[in-house]
Amino acid sequence: MTNTHVHGPTADAPARPPSPAPSPPDAARPDLVRTLLWLVLVISTVGNSVASFLDAGTGAHLLFGLVTTAGVAALVVRRVRTERRDANRGSRPGG
Q: Distance (Å, rounded) from C-alpha 40 to C-alpha 52?
């Protein structure tokens, strides 16, 4: 026998299961592009080190250096854009 009161169920009424937790915001999801950029950065840095160890030509060093520079630039641009977007929304990371 379920007895409900104006203010909610009474002691002999079954309790409702808790509602599911909300899905995490987009910022909490892993950022695939950022991960890939870091991977490119690490691979190009290691490639430049290997090229130095193997006494490769200048072309190999320039190629790896350009890829490394492009990876760093892309990571910085993404970071600045994210901070500006968050500042325009009125929220700050870590605050």
A: 18
